[in-house]
Amino acid sequence: MVRDQGLQQVADALGCPMDADIQPGGHYRPVVRDGALLYVSGQLPRLNGQIVSVGPVAPGEARQGHATLEQARHAARISALRSLMLLQRELGSLDGLRRVGRMTVYVHCSQDFTQHSEVADAASDLLHEVLGEAGVHARSAIGVCQLPKNATVEVELTASVREAS
């Protein structure tokens, strides 16, 4: 329950209610379990039904129609939080989680933006904050020219569950 308490604290700090509706936008499942592996569909930075950061992230000062690095990092934290919330709902508790094995962070960005890793670090930090060493993972941070709903970030995870005793 320690992990669940950590998740609650992070959710409270980000203003995301734990009972927030997280519904798929099509014919897929938010989480698919295959044996000990859990695949979490890409999560956009949505709070209270709204995408919190839209448009490409660009270097330097804020530009109209573009997100800043800090806005993209905040969006990555929310997307990672939503992923953990889905895992908790699937398992009943994050205590059943063995570890996060892999995370991919897609960053909607301008051509001259090169700080993809710094955006992804915010999501990685959140996983470590809630799960400890079980949240340390392999990762890719990929710059893309567009994401669904014009979101700035999308995060997807693969995790594993503890073996049944």
UniProtKB/TrEMBL annotation:
<feature type="domain" description="Endoribonuclease L-PSP/chorismate mutase-like">
    <location>
        <begin position="25"/>
        <end position="159"/>
    </location>
</feature>
<dbReference type="InterPro" id="IPR035959">
    <property type="entry name" value="RutC-like_sf"/>
</dbReference>
<protein>
    <submittedName>
        <fullName>RidA family protein</fullName>
    </submittedName>
</protein>
<dbReference type="Pfam" id="PF14588">
    <property type="entry name" value="YjgF_endoribonc"/>
</dbReference>
<dbReference type="InterPro" id="IPR013813">
    <property type="entry name" value="Endoribo_LPSP/chorism_mut-like"/>
</dbReference>
